[in-house]
Amino acid sequence: MKTAVRFNPLTAIRRLGVAMLFSAAMAVSVAGAHADPLVTPQWLNEHLADTDLVVLDIRSAIDGGGAQAYAAKGKPNNGGTKIFSVSGDVECPGNYEIPLGTPFSTLLELAGGMRGGRKIKAVIPGGSSAPVIRGDVMLDISMDYDAIAKAGSMLGSGAVIVMDETRCMVKSLLRLSYFYYEESCGQCTPCREGTGWMYRMVERIEDGHGRPEDLDVLNSVADNIQGRTICALGDAAAMPVRAFIKNYREEFEYHIEHRQCLVPAYV
Ligand code: SF4
Questions:
Q1: Which end of the chain has the smaller Cβ count within 10 Å, N or C?
Q2: How many CB atoms lie within 10 A of CB 188?
Q3: Is the C-beta atom of 172 inside 6 A of ligand 1?
């Protein structure tokens, strides 16, 4: 007889942290074990075969015209629509569904434009792990997998974070680095140790105690995390560090040299 598994996902996510964001960890947790991400949970399907629980990473589309009509809404190799969750320095943060291939400037218009009419500085186009792209570059490209990849980032979850000219890129990276440092489950040495090293180095730069060699060391630590961990959190922690330094190196260097922020208007 099949058994139904019931649980409150919000409560579970609060208790178990980022590990719950990975389907394998979620399923392991529901099965009664510690919610560690797994490389290949071979035994999992057998265990879950006796339950009514299905854990999937899915995006679905309900469209009366069928698959072909749905795909035609996008552009070649990037069919269909995608829901973008736009947050940050825009007038109307929210979820917007648009055909893939729509210019980013159109999405920005849907979100009410830049808050207070300020200038766009940076966009993280696909969730916090997606490499940041300079604002002027984003204004010239479209929201689809190929275009964003060509610009050096990824569409990922579609969580678009828009930052205006008052944002300090060092402080922004500090927040991201702290998040991944806090969320590392500690199974893999590169992630467990590296996220802490990166967070503490970015914190040192933000606090005015950065050293000239810190940027190269940060890149080196990120290189040694990416691709060397069990789950994607290692990559997710490394990619923002490399992209922020690559695209806003002058701000990091200013922090290190002058021991203060290049963006005095930051609040
Ligand atoms: S990459 Fe990080 S979060 Fe993922 S399993 Fe390894 S230590 Fe845990």
A1: N
A2: 18
A3: no
- Rounded to two decimals, the pTM is 0.80
Q: What is the pLDDT along the chain (267 residues), one digit of tens a residue?
A: 444 444 444 444 444 444 434 566 776 777 777 777 766 555 655 665 555 554 443 444 455 567 788 888 889 999 989 999 999 999 999 999 999 999 999 999 999 999 999 999 999 999 999 999 999 999 999 999 999 999 999 999 999 999 999 999 999 999 999 999 999 999 999 999 999 999 999 999 999 999 999 999 999 999 999 999 999 999 999 999 999 999 999 999 999 999 999 886 554
What structural domains does the chain harbor? 1-58 (no CATH), 67-164 (3.10.20.600), 169-258 (1.20.1440.230)
C-alpha 176 to ligand 1 mean position (Å):
16
